Amino acid sequence: MVRLLVLATFVVILNETILINAIPRLMESLHVTQQSAQWVSTAFMLTMAAIIPVTGWFLQRVTTRQAYAIAMGVFLAGTALSAVAPSFEVLLLGRIVQAAGTAVMMPLLMTTLMIVVPEQDRGRVMGNVTLAISVAPALGPAVSGLILQVGSWRMLFVVVLPIAALVTLFGLRKVDNISEPQVSSIDWLSVSVAALGFGGLVYGLSLLGETDGGVGLGIGIVIAGVAAIAVFVIRQLKLQRSGVPLMDLRTLGHRTYGLSLALISVGFLAMLGSMILLPLYLQNMRGLSPLETGLLVMPGGLAMGLLGPTVGKLFDRFGSRPLVLPGSIGMVLALGGFTQVSMTMPYWQVLGLHALLMVSLAATFTPVFTLGMGALPPHLYSHGSSMLGTLQQVAAAFGTALVVTVMTARAGHLVDDGVAAAPAELSGMKLAFGVAAVLSLVTIVVAAKLPRRIAAADAQEGSTADQPTAS
After folding, report:
1. Which residues contact 235 (CB under 8 A, 6 or more apart)?
2. What's the confidence (pLDDT) of residue 79?
3. Model pTM?
4. What is the pLDDT of residue 461?
5. Angle between helices 290-318 and 347-374 in degrees, nearest 10
6. What is d(CA 47, CA 198) in angstroms, rounded to the nearest whole number?
7. d(Cα 291, Cα 435) in Å, to the nearest integer?
């Protein structure tokens, strides 16, 4: 059952980044600008950030089979609509529908895993889950590069559609109901404020990465998004005392979960930031094709996925610190190495640094996912996984916006000083990788504070904190 959910989650999350390489084709085929074409990825992240906060409540209201059927059915509808889209607007609608289904799958997978897998086996199983959650976005550009070599952008959806349909059919035969639905009301004010807050934050951050005057508007929308999130937090704290919160913030009362959340967010920021910069470097600066770029970064993505189960077994045996601390250090070293990119850097060095980054993230993500979710009591699993998913989208948007903004600002400043365009852009990339490396130093500090295993005292402390307000 968990294997099927992992496979389904892999298929749907792969679509988050699968169109990155298809932007030029979309511009030519649908006659849109680059800024407009980028919306096929931005709208996906935006929808995920807006919907995931509702999944904690949704997963408590329906059975496991119903949640799976609804999520995959909506995803299939969005994929089919995207494949036949006659215009860019219809394609955008299809991507939004796709994202709505994807938003349910990851919290469903995490919640199911925590309920059905015994604690002593969670590391091994979470290693397989890392394949879906972390490797799928990393492999998206590589997979799309291969498909685009033989067909149009529509092939990206035509190939995914039958695979997703088969996974859905097998899943409906094998997935069992593992928990009883709970009848609970939903606070629509919280839903609205969460959508405005998290959606606005992701949208504002995406505008910061644009070069055509969107920075001022982006900063304004980010501030408005943060204000809406503050209102959302105040509302949830009030509902925790008197009703049912949309997203239960008592999850943050568990220290290990809070530390895990911080480390995963910075890790995703670094991963998505490098995913944006590397294709720009390899294609714009070094002249590689989308296929060649995809093949160059594919070994790192595959290594990350194949190591997931091994890392999980090592976690079950030795605990988190022997894995997470070296993984965090490796992440910083890889991003530091990318600050030395040049017009003549051998491709084997690029491949090696990317592989080091992916392997380091594999060593980090699996133990941290397991530790963080395992520190929560069962009634908070769905809320914990929905908060994890929401912050991943925000971190991905922030990472993308940050590296592009730093790169373009540095390049623009050098061009104004009379430096040629190519060296200026290369200098901007080096600085952007440097900023990502400095930010990733946070992961080393957090990794040093994580317990080796889920501390009984931590769970007890959180459960005690939950009890006075649970009634």
Report:
1. 187, 189, 190, 193
2. 93
3. 0.76
4. 42
5. 40
6. 9
7. 28
Contact (CB, 8 A) for 198 and 50: yes
Token pair listed for 22: 């298809």
Both structure tokens of 267: 């890790």
Cα 391 to Cα 284, 388, 394, distances in angstroms: 31, 5, 5
Three-state SS sequence of the chain? CHHHHHHHHHHHHHCCCCCHHHHHHHHHHHCCCHHHHCHHHHHHHHHHHHHHHHHHHHHHHCCHHHHHHHHHHHHHHHHHHHHCCCCHHHHHHHHHHHHHHHHHHHHHHHHHHHHHCCHHHHHHHHHHHHHHHHHHHHHHHHHHHHHHHHCCCCHHHHHHHHHHHHHHHHHHHHCCCCCCCCCCCCCHHHHHHHHHHHHHHHHHHHHHCCCCCCHHHHHHHHHHHHHHHHHHHHHHHHHHHHCCCCCCHHHHHCHHHHHHHHHHHHHHHHHHHHHHHHHHHHHHHCCCCHHHHHHHHHHHHHHHHHHHHHHHHHHHHHCCHHHHHHHHHHHHHHHHHHCCCCCCCCHHHHHHHHHHHHHHHHHHHHHHHHHHHHCCCHHHHHHHHHHHHHHHHHHHHHHHHHHHHHHHHHHHHHHHCCCCHHHHHHHHHHHHHHHHHHHHHHHHHHHHHCCCCCCHHHHHHHHHHHHHHHC
Tens digit of each residue's pLDDT (9 = 90 or more) over 387-423: 887 787 778 777 877 787 788 888 888 888 888 888 8
HSE-up of 41 (CA within 13 Å, CB side)? 25
CA separation, residue 395 to residues 261, 383, 390 (Å): 11, 18, 9
352 backbone dihedrals φ, ψ, rounded to 5°: -65, -45
For residues 177 and 85, what is the distance between their CA atoms, to the nearest angstrom?
36
Among candidate residues 114, 15, 5, the one with its CA nearest the CA of residue 67: 5
Please enumerate in sequence order all residues whose Cβ is within 8 A of that of 152, keeping only pairs 6 or more positions apart, or say none: 25, 29
| Ranges of residues in the chain whose predicted pLDDT is under 70 | 34-35, 127-128, 130-135, 138, 179-184, 209-214, 243, 454-471
What pLDDT is attached to residue 237? Answer: 86
What pLDDT shows up at residue 470? 37
Q: Report residue 315 as tokens.
A: 């976690």
CA 404 to each of CA 167, 169, 272, 328, 393: distance values in angstroms, whole numbers, following the listed order: 36, 41, 11, 23, 17
**What CA–CA distance (Å, rounded) separates 112 from 6?**
11
* Nearest of 380, 375, 392, 360 to residue 450 by alpha carbon: 375
Q: How far is CA 336 from CA 64, 235, 329, 354, 440, in A?
A: 44, 41, 10, 11, 10
* Rounded distance between C-alpha atoms, residue 433 and residue 287, angstroms: 20
